[in-house]
Amino acid sequence: MAKVSDKYLCVDPWKIIEEGFHPERSEVSESLFSLANEHQGVRGFFDEGYSGTSLTGVYLNGIFEERFTEGMAYKGISNRLAFMVNTVNWLYTRIEVDGETLDLARSKFSALRRELDFRSGELRREFIWETKSGKKLKLVFQRLLSMETKELACQQIRITPLNFSGKVTLTLGLDFSIPHRMFDQNLWNCVRKDDSAILCVSRNIGHRLFAGMKVYAEAKQTPLEAEKFIGARLEVDAVEGHGSVVGKSVVLHTDRDKDQALDLAWTRGMTLLQTYTIKYDEVLESNRLYWSDFWAKSDITIDGDADTQQGIRFCIFQMQQTYRGVIEGANIGAKGLSGEAYNGNAFWDTETYCLPFYLFSNPAAAKALIDYRYKTLPQAVARAKDLDCEGACFPIATIDGTESCTLWQHASLQFQPTTAVAYGIWHYVNVTGDTAFLRAEGSELLVQICRFLASRGQWSANGRFGYYAVMGPDEFQMMVNNNAYTNYMAKRTFEFVLKVLSLLSQREPHRGASQRAEGEGEIVSDIELKKWQHMAEKMFIPYDAETKLYEQHEGFFNLPHIDVNAIPVEDFPLYHHWSYDRIYRNDMIKQPDVLMFLFLYNGSFSMDEKRANYDYYEPRCIHESSLSPSVHSILAAELGRHQEAFDFFRFATRIDLDNYNRNTHEGIHTTSIAAAWMNIVYGFGGMRSDGDVLSFSPSIPEQWNGYSFQVTYHGSLIRVEVSQSKAVFRVLGGEPVCVKVCGKLMEVNREGISVEI
Amino acid sequence: MAKVSDKYLCVDPWKIIEEGFHPERSEVSESLFSLANEHQGVRGFFDEGYSGTSLTGVYLNGIFEERFTEGMAYKGISNRLAFMVNTVNWLYTRIEVDGETLDLARSKFSALRRELDFRSGELRREFIWETKSGKKLKLVFQRLLSMETKELACQQIRITPLNFSGKVTLTLGLDFSIPHRMFDQNLWNCVRKDDSAILCVSRNIGHRLFAGMKVYAEAKQTPLEAEKFIGARLEVDAVEGHGSVVGKSVVLHTDRDKDQALDLAWTRGMTLLQTYTIKYDEVLESNRLYWSDFWAKSDITIDGDADTQQGIRFCIFQMQQTYRGVIEGANIGAKGLSGEAYNGNAFWDTETYCLPFYLFSNPAAAKALIDYRYKTLPQAVARAKDLDCEGACFPIATIDGTESCTLWQHASLQFQPTTAVAYGIWHYVNVTGDTAFLRAEGSELLVQICRFLASRGQWSANGRFGYYAVMGPDEFQMMVNNNAYTNYMAKRTFEFVLKVLSLLSQREPHRGASQRAEGEGEIVSDIELKKWQHMAEKMFIPYDAETKLYEQHEGFFNLPHIDVNAIPVEDFPLYHHWSYDRIYRNDMIKQPDVLMFLFLYNGSFSMDEKRANYDYYEPRCIHESSLSPSVHSILAAELGRHQEAFDFFRFATRIDLDNYNRNTHEGIHTTSIAAAWMNIVYGFGGMRSDGDVLSFSPSIPEQWNGYSFQVTYHGSLIRVEVSQSKAVFRVLGGEPVCVKVCGKLMEVNREGISVEI
User: Rounded CA gap, A366 and B364, in Å?
Assistant: First the structure.
């Protein structure tokens, strides 16, 4: 891997800290210092405005716009891009002294420090401003998003004159006029406003967004307004050595319902504004309690490696900020709520990379992710029809359930989102035992998925079933036949669904499920079941018994070979430097494909198979996807390749903090930081959740003294502490549970058990 | 083939005739009745305006605009579309009687007849108009493009009152305000005008186009003008029973030079206008002489089948209208100058489908087509660089030599244009023996082509050379490895160039060629020659010796099979009715691919091979390309499948007259009608031009009494007359020539020889 870190933050176990200002990394910092509470997210831009490079981004989960692209007008090609739209700068602030407006791109300042505390979710920034007139002021900016009341956001500014007493003029406001960066366009129309609130409607979709504020300050307030802006001008009489505090509480309200009456949106917003605008310190305190509770359940400690300790906590903190199952109909965008890259769309990463974190810390949130797919089943059915198929085809990229990927080769040829939904259901039920879900929504989803897989697959001239003209997870092999991943996942899906339907039929006829599946009462006939059975049996999985290698797709082994280590570093990322077609015609891969299904169905493969395939595919992989390193690390750990496992982990866990991929300015890699969590738990912890019982085979990098993690399983909180010599398993809360440790079934209780490693 | 004719024209050996008006086919007729003289083309729209469905299209060879499409912004992806732009309606006419304006969509009329005469290139239309006031007038419209003076166009209108004498008001003009249909946008700015002329500049490229007119009428003329329009209003005192004639001569002048001084463009245009505006009848007479001379050399007769006789003459007439090697830098657009589909771009059809017609009737025009590629070599070198390759890559679609296909999968994956240029050179030299060209421009082109082929090809893991991620001629297999056509053509190209360079080196060092090739004196080194030799030797041509089948690409034989005859007729064209990806994943093919190289290098394959591959691939082909039937017909004739050969030919030769593909309204299928000529000469005539000497093996469909065709070969005009029992070969002009007939070498002279068949 030709990935090099770009470290500039201070290391701290519970915070990220920037000392001094790094204007060349201003947007990287904005991403890293972003806050979110699932409902809303705000980048770490400067409250007071900044004329340097900056993306003033404020995003709300599920608030999106759409755009129809020009391009190929063929059937089944999606030309509608849905994108999480930039909304309102609720932190809008301008500060003037002696006619000079503070702007860190132009003003003289010193001693800048900003920090984000994972134990409170507070972002704090301070510096000393020296005006042209020679006045010095210490400024402290604080901001918070309430974890308790999702609509609530708070800003506080403390101004301390150091060498004078006198007037400081501030403008605080709510600014709906900011552009959506990706299209350099503002997408809001203001429909109502008064001194304290503004209601806007998004231009194409018509999403309603209410923003209200309560400004607090010991100063005269003069209301201000502009087309898409409301604000207040404050004259603060600042006293030398004394901190004057101003701030505002803000409510951002939406019902995510474009048909909601505007009056109702206004009234509800105003009610929230009156109810919830409490003081900054109260919100800070409530957040501390929230995060303290969270860390007690979900912390990972690493002893002896401050770097990765900070990295892994940053990952967990960001995951929890982005998604925790509170918002109806939310999913997890590839950049969370921290930027516009990938347009806020969710991918198959949700089921394959993010789900485990929630399955083992917050099962309700995990279920909500699967419910999201159930709620968007009608869109998936429509999409399958667009593709001349039956059943349900889930989108490669989406916000509202509709396919939003306008690159047809991805949208029309990648089916891992669909098999991932089935995998997610299987995984969820396997871990939680929630058969009620399986009997109802689960089986309906599964039947529709099988119908899609049956209709999209084809029989080859030589009598094998498989998928033709597909792209697997590895996007460097664009259009291939019999991709092993696609075929294997489809085979397992058929087998799982056949088992589910046969189990259900012992208790209740599986007609129930299939009736729901079609809405109109069409049942899954015996003919259909037999067809699926036959397809599963005859599914072609390219495999060489002698070498134990799965062939990534038919013909992969005969592709021209390229030595990925010989590619000059300046050629990366390849999509920017290589002719597009050149990427697609050799045995180089972007991310795990065969190794991906070896990871997902880990227990179904022998160590020899894992070793052979790891040794073959890892050297061909350039990890251009941020999802790649963790999966490799987990398999390396299982194979006893400890140094490799550790190297991949370091990269995965600090991908954003050290900006390994040089694109953190676009937002954080939310779904790949979910993988960093798996990297500890599945990788070093050796946890496996694809068997009948949860199992662990811990190992530890030699660089560490010890590490610990916790998982919630069958209602019990299990703590795992691993040192260089032993692993201790203990139930912290709930009933004793049976798990397998290093191959042996054991009961873990509050006293704990210790195993030598 | 599920192709059904839509016949509505009268059958005539020398004309196309429409009796009565078919408004539902108005744009089909506009295409069929289009005129061209290579410099300019005009659709058969109504002079007097028509408020029904119509495309008022006037196009000039080489006058294009450009448009940059949104879309994928990856390296090597061409986002610039060049399109032959709609220009000036020089036929603009309005006719008023008693305040009623003639409009065949609204007016009462009868006895409409229009005809296009292949012996003069005149389009004549007549009908009787009955005004609301009860007046009846006979109107005759005639138009012509001069074949002698390419800038000259003539319009004549004869008005005969049948039941009154009185005023008829006409407006005649030059109208630059017509929209380009494809983008519904006018693309001209007027820079100068007076009463008789108007000079416009195209909006983006800046092409200059001068249009001047001389109106003749025995009536008072009042000048008119509007923003992009000049005209004259005429008051004609029409007399019952007496035909009043009005008309105009028009000059359309361009130097195809966007940098030409505007004054110069104006002056040159005015000079032409003064020189060339002669009377209609003189131009008609000159055109008759031109066409009489042409038909004497190039006619094909079919005795006993009026349908195909009309069809083949229409094809030959349209070919000659579209291209005859007069315009510097012109090529042959897929729709000629008759419509906007394919944007006036030229494809690989030029060398593979059109070149033979010119090679055997007008070798100078054939050479001009190859010169076109030489002149655009710099663009092809730049394109290769875009694709991270060396040498020259010729565009899949182009007007000015730059790649103009914005569908990346075609532009980046299809290399038949590049191998077709080499094939064209080889074919040209083989037929003409023009080694001077080969030594100079030819070898320079060939060296650059080989460099591209060497750098784009790759060595597989098992030591074979070939092309990965390509699309062959069959566009239904989008992205495959080792397409047999691509590999075979590349192999033959290497072999040809190695031979050429070795022959040249005996007379003069081939450095000469290679120095020109690089401009800077880089020579073709021995290392490079050896590399090409090695690639040619190790080129992987998928072939099964037992079945004698070439596999269209690696893995084709294992693709899912689809019975193309079971596809419902209403599913065609598939691109409109099938999900885009669905087309690309079975063994259905759109057009010949293996059969294409079996046709191009016909003499290199045994009859057994041709039979086996024809029997395998023809049933899998849906002929969705109009280029398909002729090649199948030619091979069917060779294999003695006479009925099949005849059926394919009927389709090929009347594709537009009977609107088989239901898209003639977009323009005529210029390059596929070139294939209809090959269908007679190579198919039934059994001519082969890929050997050392020209050969013939005539056969005759049982439906015909006889047929004849003529070819110019080594300066001699050979006439071939075939009846049900014999074939007669005779030299009509020039020296006796040696040809092979039915395998036997013979000298053909003016007395002729007769062979039983």
Answer: 74
